[in-house]
Design goal:
Helix content: 10-25%
Structural class: alpha/beta
Number of helices: 5
Order of helices and strands: EHEHHEEEEEEEEHEEEEEH
CATH class of the domain at 16-138 and 200-242: Alpha Beta
Radius of gyration: 17 Å
Distance between the termini: 22 Å
CATH architecture of the domain at 16-138 and 200-242: 3-Layer(bba) Sandwich
Number of strands: 15
CATH topology of the domain at 16-138 and 200-242: FAD/NAD(P)-binding domain
Length: about 250
Amino acid sequence: MFGPTHPRSQPQPGHLYDVAVVGAGLAGTELAWRLARAGRDVLLVTQALDHLGNLYQPTTQGVGFPPASLFAQVAAQLAPDTDGWTFHRHLKAAVEATAGIHLLQSTVTELNEDSDEVTLSTWEGPRLRARVAVLAVGAFLKGRLLIGDTLEEAGRLSEVAYDFLADDLARAGVWLIGTQQTAAGVEGAPPYEVRFLTPAPSELTGFRLVRFGRVYALGRCTPGDHTYASVLEDAARLAEELAGVGA
């Protein structure tokens, strides 16, 4: 149900992926799943695998996932008001069962592009290589949470911000602008406001960052208003656009 039957990627140091997806929220997870089902060799790298597919709301009640999405398929197997942690566990299992996706817990800090590939530097040290890179980092580019009078360097509660990556994009000439959103308090956790950066609209042509030839951006880390449905639909469109990579 969740993927083709060709062998799982078995990467060695220096392996060249077809697509490296940075960020495993809604946008990144859906994109990686769709590309893997199209036969691409995909790296899905995130700062914390325990946060894969995390939702901004406590349950799946009324989420409105598009029917053809991985998220809708997983949700259909669960009760309508399943809590977010249970949903995450089932979603992660579905991703792990999808051949062609290599999951990696690491922090991407820098992008370097040449004519044939993109090299991703990481906080942990190893460099990652791909023909194309997609930034799906949500509200994490210089993410700051305002909780009462306290400011925390995070894109969401207990999830570290991508400060180094934001600085690297700025050094590359990408004009980053500020935006913000509010998250309601749930299950004893306080409400908070998250402030973060996105590329300015002029920095994008479709999904591609104009200052790069092989780097794309997807989801909440792009300008505009987003919903669960719109992010997943955008992931489907970008997957179609990138389906020929590595073919």
